[in-house]
């Protein structure tokens, strides 16, 4: 059993290496692109290996893959040549692999790309200026990792919420990973909200592509979203089928996206569970809903992010909710009202 698993892993690596050599061969045909996309969709685990190879190649910076043609070969002759044979591409793959190994060794010694980690504290959103000219508004109690290379801009939003204003650079895609999905943009403005159960992306300007990796069904799900639209998906990797789908919908109030930048929390029919989750970023008290039936109550209102106690008082006044506190433990409980009599 173990030997079979090892052989399967080796086949996955070999296939990813083969596709890497094909897509960087300089001889890519339209049929190659179609087959590559089909392979990536059907084998997301192998596609991740392909992405790892690309990341290694990015470490090289502006190095150009070695040309499979002799010096002096004209573009006209290149176009007229027959498609490369599997042996030709395999040899090219070995050449690329050797170059990657050498280049990565040099890069790690001389200029390993720095992964920068950012984290905000309770009640303290932060504006972060990236070296490529992009801006990130990171909400309170949120964290992310940033790695910028010559060919890619990778962000891992680990927790919380962030608004991204992406500097236009078509040669360096801007990719935000969140849970088991990712958002790809070139130049746009969008917000990503990461929760234990879901991820939500709201597009303020431009166009984005959202991809969710489904490790159970071994598929990639993709959707295009434009300004005024939002995409949500489950953050639980074990969910498949309809539960794992990307949901595209219209934004109710696009102007309210990331209102926390101005110290406001705006809710237009949001469930109480979401409201409490976001209020929790602005208080050192633990907010606990004791009755699951209360979680779906709808909340409407504009609250001061820096006065969560006032927000809780307004919720208690507007909804059938009773608030109690355990000062010693720093816990605020939201419970249902006791029946009369």
Q: Between the first and last Cα atoms, what is the distance in angstroms?
A: 65 Å
CATH fold-level name of the largest domain: Jelly Rolls
- Radius of gyration based on Cα positions: 25 Å
Overall pLDDT: 78
Largest sheet: 13 strands, mixed
Number of helices: 7
Helical coverage, percent range: 25-40%
Outline of this structure?
The chain has helices at residues 2-23, 30-42, 44-59, 75-80, 86-110, 272-279, 308-318; strands at 116-119, 126-129, 135-138, 143-148, 153-165, 174-178, 181-185, 189-194, 198-205, 207-214, 219-226, 229-234, 247-250, 264-271, 286-289, 298-304, 321-326, 331-336. It has 341 residues and is α+β, with helices and mostly antiparallel strands.
Describe this structure as you would to a colleague.
The chain is of the alpha+beta class. The protein folds into three domains: 2-110, no CATH class; 116-254, Jelly Rolls (Sandwich); 263-336, Phage tail protein beta-alpha-beta fold (3-Layer(bab) Sandwich). Helix content is 30%, strand content 33%. It is built from seven helices and 18 strands. The strands form three sheets. Strands 1, 2, 3, 4, 5, 6, 7, 8, 9, 10, 11, 12 and 13 form a 13-stranded mixed β-sheet that branches. The chain has a three-stranded mixed β-sheet with strand order 15-18-17, covered by helices on one side. Strands 14-16 form a two-stranded antiparallel sheet. Strand 2 (126-129) and strand 3 (135-138) form a beta hairpin. Helix 1 (2-23) packs across helix 3 (44-59) and helix 1 (2-23) packs across helix 5 (86-110). It is elongated and about 70 Å long. Residues 1-10, 60-92 and 99-111 have low confidence and may be disordered.
